[in-house]
């Protein structure tokens, strides 16, 4: 089967591998679509903190069941999506239902080889029927679930003012699900094309371009009170530190980004505002189900989000183009 490997940062190679053999408790999935995530781009550029090379990237995937145990939950021919966070089920986090931050987590495409290939043998528990959505949509569930999880972590309420810093796909996912909870959403980013997309396709209430005067604009948008909930989706340590200043008194700051840096902030300001600071990692089954339900109801603009496509065989040659801002990539999907 065709498999694309990231051998070292900046180096992708296509090779033939043996098709995996389904073990007991597993299903064999024929991969059909793989979404390209910021994590994949960071792996390619050498900026992913949880990874060893070489690695087969890809954790946003949909496919079709090729083989399954008779009488199981899944049958041959089922269209499926995959929860790529393979949790252990027995650690302190899993016992609380927080499988997204499992102590022993194995994320496809990060800790173990992922979906830039034709077949994957996966534990049945992490493979779910994608009923009522297309293969393309099913491949987008994972990144949207990260945004949905962050919004749930932040306990966003109707009528609240929400700021999302970083208008990449994960930030856009947070915008979508904050709006679905009835919040008024503002986007802050350095790229005007991304901000225009958020206003045109996602219906955010306002956008602010990073740069001179941005704090004043954010203040004016909230009558000087700033934001009930702020989400950081920048992947930039300095941006995360700056974001503390955008949180209203009594507000919440949710860090979706993960960076290598040590983050510092002003303790007097933190206490004065009684800020709630939250990390948000991955997503749970509940968040995936939230996304699927919203897709079925037509509340997620998946066609607009999917801006680029490429076949698996072209990934070594064309992948680097996805890093070029001039390409205006939001979500690229690899067809297998």
Structure report:
Helix 8 (237-243) links the parallel strand 13 and strand 14 (247-255). The termini are close together. 27% of the residues lie in helices and 27% in strands. Helix 4 packs across helix 5 and helix 4 (141-153) crosses helix 10. Strands 3, 4, 5, 8, 9, 16 and 17 form a seven-stranded mixed beta sheet that branches. Strands 12-11-10-13-14-15 form a six-stranded parallel beta sheet, sandwiched between helices. It has a two-stranded antiparallel sheet with strand order 1-2. The mean pLDDT is 96. The relative contact order is 0.15. By secondary structure, it is of the alpha/beta class. The protein has twelve helices and 17 strands. The protein folds into two domains: 2-140 and 300-335, Medium-chain alcohol dehydrogenases, catalytic domain (Quinone Oxidoreductase, Chain A, domain 1, Alpha-Beta Complex), CATH 3.90.180.10; 146-279, Rossmann fold (3-Layer(aba) Sandwich), CATH 3.40.50.720.
In whole angstroms, how far apart are the ends? 11 Å
CATH architectural category of the largest domain:
Alpha-Beta Complex
CATH topology of the largest domain: Quinone Oxidoreductase, Chain A, domain 1
What's the number of helices?
12
User: What is the assembly state of the chains in this entry?
Assistant: single chain
Q: What percentage of residues falls in helices of 4 or more residues?
A: 25-40%
CATH class of the largest domain: Alpha Beta
Coarse shape: globular
How would you classify the helix and strand content by structural class? alpha/beta
Instruction: Indicate the proportion of strand residues.
Output: 25-35%
CATH homologous superfamily label of the largest domain = Medium-chain alcohol dehydrogenases, catalytic domain
Number of strands: 17
Q: Which residues form runs of ≥5 with pLDDT under 50?
A: none
Number of domains: 2
Order of helices and strands: EEEHEEEHEEEHHEHEHEHEHEHEHHEHE
Radius of gyration: 20 Å
Major sheet attributes: 7 strands, mixed
């Amino acid at each position: 089967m065709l498999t694309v490997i990231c051998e070292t940062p900046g180096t992708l190679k296509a090779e033939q591998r043996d098709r995996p053999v389904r073990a007991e408790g597993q299903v064999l999935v024929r991969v059909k679509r793989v979404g390209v995530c910021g994590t994949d781009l960071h792996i390619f550029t050498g900026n992913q903190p949880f990874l060893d090379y070489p690695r087969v990237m890809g954790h946003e995937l949909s496919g079709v069941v090729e083989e399954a145990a008779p009488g199981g939950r899944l049958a041959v021919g089922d269209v499926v999506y995959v929860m790529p966070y393979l949790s252990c089920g027995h650690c302190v986090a899993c016992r609380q239902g927080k499988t997204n931050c499992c102590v022993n987590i194995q994320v496809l495409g990060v800790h173990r080889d992922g979906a830039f290939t034709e077949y994957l043998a996966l534990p049945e528990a992490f493979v779910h029927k994608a009923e009522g959505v297309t293969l393309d949509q099913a491949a987008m569930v994972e990144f949207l679930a990260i945004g949905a999880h962050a919004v749930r972590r932040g306990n966003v309420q109707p009528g609240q003012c929400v700021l999302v810093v970083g208008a990449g796909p994960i930030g856009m996912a947070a915008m979508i699900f904050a709006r679905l909870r009835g919040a008024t959403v503002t986007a802050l980013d350095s790229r005007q094309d991304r901000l225009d997309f958020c206003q045109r396709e996602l219906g955010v209430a306002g956008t602010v371009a990073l740069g001179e005067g941005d704090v004043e604009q954010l203040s004016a948008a909230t009558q000087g009170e700033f934001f009930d909930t702020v989400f950081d989706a920048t992947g930039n340590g300095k941006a995360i530190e700056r974001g503390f200043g955008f949180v209203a008194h009594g507000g919440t700051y949710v860090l979706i980004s993960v960076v290598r840096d040590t983050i510092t902030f002003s303790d007097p300001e933190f206490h004065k505002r009684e800020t709630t600071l939250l990390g948000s990692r991955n997503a749970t089954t509940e968040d995936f189900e939230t996304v699927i339900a919203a897709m079925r109801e037509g509340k997620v603009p998946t066609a607009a989000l999917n801006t680029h496509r490429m076949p698996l065989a072209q990934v070594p040659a064309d992948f680097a183009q996805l890093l070029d801002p001039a390409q205006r990539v939001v979500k690229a999907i690899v067809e297998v």
